[in-house]
Design brief:
This protein has helices spanning 11-19, 35-38, 50-57, 85-97, 107-115, and strands at residues 25-29, 42-45, 71-74, 103-105, 119-123, 132-135. By secondary structure, the protein is α/β, with parallel strands linked by helices. It has a single domain, classed as RbsD-like domain (RbsD-like fold, 3-Layer(aba) Sandwich).
Length: 141
């Protein structure tokens, strides 16, 4: 254990977050997401809800502020304006951290972007559409 670090920030997760560069993306995926088929690097967090893992990550990960839409979620198929419970939870966590709100993108666009992500963290999230993609920013001197 280390002082000041959220307990969900495992050594493996900290290594991934530290290795990411500006503009690299990270996916937090729900339990139904086809993570193993898409991940270049896969870490698993069974039993943890995605918004709880997001809260921990945002204690150390800067969100990109040079691009539009650095935080993306999967749009609901057939109802892209819908805001599922998991997405509402993400929005609340992002707001607490001072990060921009998530923007919904089409399902297959999300899958494509997830396949290019630096890493996918598969959580135990059971709420539908509990997937979020984060773009890493920089920490100013």
């Amino acid at each position: 254990m280390l002082k000041g670090l959220h307990p969900y920030l495992t050594p493996e997760l900290l290594r991934v977050l530290a290795a990411m560069g500006h503009g690299d993306t990270l996916v937090l995926a729900d339990a139904n997401f086809p993570a193993a088929a898409r991940a270049r690097r896969l870490l698993r967090f069974p039993g943890l809800e995605a918004d709880a893992v997001l809260r921990a990550i945002l204690t150390v990960l800067p969100i990109d502020d040079f691009i539009d839409d650095p935080v993306r979620v999967m749009a609901v198929v057939g109802d892209p304006a819908a805001r599922p419970e998991a997405v509402q939870a993400f929005a609340a966590v992002l707001a607490e951290a001072g990060a921009p709100p998530p923007v919904a993108i089409e399902r297959f666009a999300f899958y494509e972007q997830a396949g290019a992500a630096f890493a996918i963290l598969q959580t135990g999230e059971r709420r539908l559409y509990g997937n979020i993609l984060l773009t890493k920013g920089v920490i100013a001197p």
